[in-house]
Specification:
The protein is an alpha/beta fold. 53% of the residues lie in helices and 16% in strands.
Amino acid sequence: MDRNSFTRSIVEGLVDQYVEEIRRDPKRSVRKLVDLGGQFAKGRFQKQIIGLMQSVLSNEKSPYYTFAQEIAEDTDLDRLKTFGINVGLNSWTVGAKMIREKESELGYNIPWSLTFHINDVFFAFLPEEIQRLVKEGKACGIYTYLLHFTDENLQTFSLSDYHAVAGENPDCAFVYFLPPGYVRGQNQNISEISSLSNVMVSVDDSCAGWEDVLQIWKENRCLRAVHRFCSTREEKEDIVSGTWLGRAISAGASFAFCFAAPSYPLAERKELESYLAKIRAEQKYPIFPMDYYADHLLIDQIISDGPCYLGILPDGTVTRYDGCLEQRTKQNIFEKPLLEILKGHPVLE
């Protein structure tokens, strides 16, 4: 057994113990679990996160105690443990170290995760191409993969090929961002996703009845989130007023992702970023809200100084985020290996 496997075995056993304790006594047990994390924190990112969590939990009235208790009670223990360790240990610890070493060796940035934008066209490339990219990503230290299913036609497709990729990479964390209303009449997909311990599901809250969809995932004890694409002033007001998060909490979400639409004004986009960061710091709600792009780049910058984002469109076109928009480049992931794509800064069209 190598060192990383040994460390994982120890962490898994300790997490099993502490999750059960969190259900009984969240305040005491969460603090103990965070202190335990401090003992394993070696890199600057891990130490910064642990320090932040210890500061947050010094507030006896923090709603994050409620957050921890509810996620421990409503989520399958194996799923919670596997996903959490894959992100916290494999991605942000072991993977982060690999990324820094590779960046030092190669002289260019490597992202901590990959984002896939998927519609029915992309099915032609599964499972071989996705599996190839995950294999190449893991060799660089990338252990987190974010899959955005954006085409309503996906309602008629099975996602079994994607499940196979997640199942064959149990050391990675996958987040499925599902299109509005997805899972209605999709009993096979519900069953398959629910069997995967390394997948979190996020529900698009733009359609009527999304609360019922989220409830399906809660009943299956999955890790679950909601996401919102913000493109109007009314949607922004819904978010910054706290109404959006209030609905998400009532529906049973543990995480909430916000995306600003490409057409959304920069000033409004920055206001959203500031609001989400502010309410996390103020500990106002028992849910963890994130600005998808800004917080992705924040994590990446802490891991390896230079922020780096890499997305892939359905036709294989690579995208990057320039601080305002996710934009197409002239690179295509189906024409070159991942490291060749990452070499230097892709030229925008």
